[in-house]
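Q: How do we represent a protein-ligand complex in a form that can be generated token by token?
A: Start from the inputs.
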Amino acid sequence: MIIQRNKCLKAYNTFGISATAKYFCEINSLDDLAEALRLEEYPRKFIISGGSNMLLTCDVDALVLHINLKGITVISEDDNSVIVKVMAGENWHEMVLWTLDHDYGGLENMSLIPGNTGTAPIQNIGAYGVELKDSFVSCEAMHITSQEIKTFSKDACQFGYRDSYFKNAGKGQYVITSVNFKLTKKNHVLNTSYGAIEAALKEQQIDDPTIKDISNAVIAIRRSKLPDPAELGNSGSFFKNPILSKVKFNKFQKSHADAPFYKISEDAYKVPAGWLIEQCGYKGKRFGDAGIHKNQALVLVNHDRATGTEILDLALRIMASVEEKFGIKITPEVNIIK
Ligand code: EPU
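Then emit the structure tokens for the protein with EPU bound:
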């Protein structure tokens, strides 16, 4: 295994932040991973996969392991469904396109989400009415200190909104190495209820959509709203949508009757952080090279040479403004590396 020194991580994080890894190695197999984790001369290890959900605010004084485990395999199937095992380093969107090429249904609403498959369970990625957990069966992960491989069932992952065991009790303990999905082979369950998908299908006069049509609609919506990290550094939604209790929501709605919201349960209402941030006047603004996207205020962007600290300062400023104006705390969805 080749260990590189002082490696620039700009190409390894979708924010395009030029932080430096003190040591760096590529992980191309489970053996590589176990070997690298065992290296005692590098006591601190830091895992990067797609780098799509992190903000690097400093250099990384550790051995960075870049997860490059590849492979997509059908491990079992019956007439109706198939179980697909995807290695952690497979790019998420390319993997979704692979499922669509085989007419396997379940992941189409999550087309074009940046990042790799192995990190998707950590925050239970989701979009347009569907979350990873809806097709998730299990994942395998290597324990960082013992190098043992453990299988996590869906229950063990404790999925919530942009949340899982791996963000809580299991944080920093495991490297996810593969994910198993259960996908449909026929009678696909189409999820077109999200307003923007319905509108896109209507515009194209598609009455009886296939899973590929839904994927194409999602791709078109995302391209119109969300910046492509290859062109403008970003990490998707920087903040989570805050969830308010009924009492707090009623109070909020009295003074902001026009605010969009989603009712999650009798006592939980989600308010779009993008709307709150836009109301504070930030949408499309730029402070040096750190900015807020012009089409979606939930997305912070690196116009070229912003440092992680500049993006973080902007995030803190936005959080303070939202709290001052609405009395609502918003929190980052992105992992902030300090
Ligand atoms: N809105 C505004 N201004 C904005 C952004 C949004 O007023 O600048 C309003 C919209 O008009 C709409 C509502 O807020 O009424 C919701 O907006 P949108 O449909 O764009 O969804 P979101 O709640 O802002 C969430 C996810 C996205 C996901 C979309 C679609 C989170 C943190 N974000 O965004 O996920 O693509 O729904 O399902 O839950 C990501 O996690 O990186 C991501 C992009």
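The longest helix spans residues 308-326. The chain has three domains: 3-67, 72-184, 233-337.
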